[in-house]
Amino acid sequence: MIKTCKTALTAFALASLPLIAACGEQDETPAETATRDDGTLTLAAGLGADEQLDTLRRAIEQSELSGVFEGAASYTMLAPRDAAFEALGEEGADLLREEQRPLLVAILRDHLLPGHLTPEAIGEAIDQAGGPVTMTTLGQTTVTFDRDGEQLSVAAGDTSRAAFSGAAIAANNGVVIPIDAVLLPPKG
Fold first, then answer.
1. How far apart are CA 185 and CA 127, in angstroms?
2. Which of 114, 117, 120, 171 could staple 46 via S-S, CB 3.0–4.6 A?
3. Is residue 162 exposed (0-12), middle (13-18) or buried (19+ Cβ within 10 Å)?
4. Are strands 75-80 and 174-179 parallel, antiparallel or unpaired?
């Protein structure tokens, strides 16, 4: 009986391997904006879980806002990926200079929302409203969330727009939502 059980379990495990491999391949699909729920992390650790957020982590350290991401309050971070900062060219590199810290803090506050918002919850709000929904960031900027098919995006006024880009990470004090652009204030 025990040998039969072991044989059956081994056969099941071997038969399941293609299914597990197929599941792993699906992480690259548009459904990648789903939230990975690892509520044991802080926001700071969640930012560290995505290797494409190195520039943002450096920006947070430079801005001296790191404590916000370790605290008990719940926030949602619209997290520009490294490529988003690179797309800014010299302007993006300049943001990390010490003398630019006040501007960097303002930009980062415009990427922070109060509360624990997942892409799924934002999508549901858009569906319930029958169109775009707005929120106010910690920097007092109004952002608008919208959907084009399955693709969620966020806009800051008429000047900046970013698409959700990759799996969000649920932490115990908020959510990290990777985006493909930096939301910048209007130049004026």
1. 28
2. 171
3. buried
4. parallel
Which strands, in side-by-side order, build the sheet including 168-171? 35-37, 168-171, 174-179, 75-80, 112-114
Q: Report which of 100, 123, 113, 116 is spatially closest to residue 156, judged by C-alpha positions.
A: 113
Tally the residues of the chain: 188
Quick one: which H or E segment has residue 9?
Answer: helix 2-25
Q: In tens digits, what is the pLDDT along the chain, a chain of 188 residues?
A: 444 443 333 333 333 333 333 333 333 334 455 666 656 788 888 888 889 999 999 999 989 888 888 888 899 999 999 999 999 999 888 888 999 999 999 999 999 999 999 999 999 999 999 999 999 999 999 999 999 999 999 999 877 999 999 999 999 999 999 999 999 877 65
Sign of the Cα pseudo-torsion (36, 50, 73, 128, in order): negative
Start-to-end CA distance of the chain, whole Å, equals: 78
DSSP letter for each residue of 79-110: EE-HHHHHHTTHHHHHTTSGGGHHHHHHHHHT
